[in-house]
Write a structure and sequence with these properties.
It contains 6 helices and 4 strands. By secondary structure, the protein is of the alpha/beta class. Strands 1-2-4-3 form a 4-stranded mixed sheet, sandwiched between helices. It starts with a strand and ends in an 11-residue tail after the last helix.
């Protein structure tokens, strides 16, 4: 069973149930991958989402990625990609798939630049982060196109527009 816990560390819009939105976004992303069975696996499959500010994400980005600046989302997988296929059969009781961390100021600025709500942009980033947790990346054109295609499908299943429609 998939469990998504959301922790708000700084002011994020109160009008949205972030716990529910995070769970919907993570489930939508996971459903499109070869690891969809994790959502219904016997062990509890956990994803933690931290909604925080640029300062915390800046520190994490610096400390874990060597990039001394904030970014919109960070993902910290806890399961090696080559072990994911066997996880649905685990009898360990619970699997921590990983953590996703979003920076409010960066997300809000990007949402404004795109002309979309912070909630919709954050949802996209949770989908994006979930895909990273199960081994997807965007280090080259082919993997980026694959990941973007999955993001677009997951967001469409949530009733959200293609975030890549207006790219130059």
């Amino acid at each position: 069973m998939l469990s998504v816990e959301t922790h708000e560390a700084s002011p994020w819009p109160d009008a949205l149930d972030w716990e529910a939105r995070g769970a919907e976004a993570a489930a939508a992303a996971l459903a499109l991958t070869p690891f969809a069975s994790l959502a219904d696996a016997a062990p509890l499959v956990e994803i933690a989402i931290r909604l925080t500010d640029d300062a915390e994400v800046h520190a994490l980005n610096r400390d874990f990625r060597g990039k001394d600046k904030p970014t919109n989302v960070l993902s910290f997988p806890q399961v090696q990609a080559d072990l994911l296929e066997t996880m649905a059969n685990s009898d360990d009781g619970e699997i921590l798939l990983g953590d996703i961390v979003l920076a409010r100021e960066t997300c809000a600025r990007e949402a404004g630049e795109k002309g979309i709500s912070l909630e919709d942009h954050a949802t996209h980033l949770i989908v994006h982060g979930t895909l990273h947790l199960v081994g997807y990346d965007h280090m080259d054109d082919v993997s980026a196109a694959t990941m973007e295609g999955l993001e677009v499908k997951a967001l469409a299943s949530l009733g959200l527009a293609n975030p890549y429609d207006h790219q130059d």
